[in-house]
Amino acid sequence: MASRNYRRLARLVFDGKRTYIWLLISSSYAFYGLSFTPPMIFSPKYFAWFGNPYTGFRNDLADKVVNSDK
């Protein structure tokens, strides 16, 4: 649509090797999203996607156990 309605804008943005720059930007963004964000894992118990793979399992007991040297 942009090349048909806005030829000057289309040439400014996509002319020559600028198309490769746009592809590099979008590929870099996708690589960042896949590499540096926590994966979403489906939990059949809740029928939903969660970032924590242990959602729905017993919580860690380290917060509830008191270790004292008395």
Structural write-up:
- The chain is mostly helical.
- It has helices spanning 2-5, 7-14, 18-35, and strands spanning 41-43, 48-50.
- A hairpin with a 4-residue loop joins β1 and β2 (48-50).
- The protein is elongated, with a radius of gyration of 25 Å.
- Keywords: Membrane, Transmembrane, Transmembrane helix.
Number of domains: 1
**Category from helices, strands and their pairing:** mainly alpha
Compute the average pLDDT.
Answer: 81
Q: Work out the radius of gyration.
A: 25 Å
- Percent of residues in beta strands: 5-15%
Helix coverage percent: 40-55%
Distance between the termini: 76 Å
The tally of strands reads 2
How would you name the oligomeric state of the polypeptide chains in this document?
single chain
Which sequence of SSEs, written as H and E, runs from N to C? HHHEE
Widest sheet: strand order?
1-2
In short:
The chain is mainly α.
Core attributes:
transmembrane; 7TM_GPCR_serpentine_rcpt_Srt; mainly alpha; two-stranded antiparallel sheet; elongated; 70 residues; transmembrane helix
List the helices and strands and how they pair.
Elements (H helix, E strand, L loop, with lengths): L1 H4 L1 H8 L3 H18 L5 E3 L4 E3 L20
Antiparallel strand pairs: 1-2
